[in-house]
Amino acid sequence: MNIKTLRSDHIYQKVAQASPEEKLELFRNEMMAPFMKQWQIQQIPFKAEEENGFDVIAFNSMMHRSPDQISPQICAEIELISSESFWLECEHAVKKSLNLFVEHEINLPVSDYLFTIQLGNPESRALTINEGYSGFGGIPGFIWGTLLPNEYTIPRMKAALAHECNHNVRYQFIQWDHTVNLGELLVSEGLAENYATFMFGEELLGPWVTKTNAEILNTHIKPVLREQLQLTGFDQLAPYLYGDEIAKLQNLEPVNMPYSAGYACGYHLIQYYLRKTGSTIFEATITPAAQILDEIKGFWDEETIISC
């Protein structure tokens, strides 16, 4: 297995010192180009044909520092993600998260992986609602972490990377296409967050789970999501997964769901599945959602107890 680290701090330092005219293409070629295959899979143009058109820079800048924001004024921010210890910890998290599947006799079809950590955009509500950190790992072979670097987010990056590595493994075995439904996404997010806590402990459980209490989960979220498991079309199912506030940010129709409802439900759903079946998190990660949902029918009627 070949796992490559893209040291974004080195790129940020270069871009910060570059002239305003050089910043954009320097950032595009050094930060975005190594992920070219991901952009092709996501059908995001690498460079817009018209000025200010939609491309990888516009897409990336929604949640991350844009090239024009990377200047000497944010040197202190860049410094926070520039230590060798930070990158070694992140690299260890990715390597351990992927290698454990191989050690548990799950042969991964993808052998080459690239990961990086990017500075988040402080103006992004989608990031701040997540307490300043996030990630993306749904395209096999590519793993991203995002953070507003501070004492809270930096120690949590390893858990976020484990979460994204779990997605990365799952979607080497489970087909993602236009037929993906809400049930799959509840299962997927539940598996990923259970894997993160399996790796690094429940004290690093993400806010997308911890902000939901038992009463809201049992009386509001579970009864609604139970009836929507077959819902398809990302614009239709996303509000149930992310909640109304993030749905509105994405210009989607709210559905009276609290923050990250699907993540919280998925986390407890997978805990129920693992307890009931005795399956390992490794086996569960590559199990089709329909099979998991068939095993956890009792979850919907049983009151979920959330320990403090």
From TrEMBL:
Residue intervals of the DUF2268 domain: 86-293
Entry-linked Pfam families: DUF2268
GO molecular function terms listed in the Swiss-Prot or TrEMBL record: peptidase activity
Domain of life, source organism: Bacteria
GO BP, sorted A to Z: proteolysis
InterPro entries: DUF2268 (IPR018728)
Record keywords, A-Z: Hydrolase, Protease
Protein name: Zn-dependent protease
Species annotation: Paenibacillus solani
Phylogenetic placement of the source organism: Bacteria, Bacillati, Bacillota, Bacilli, Bacillales
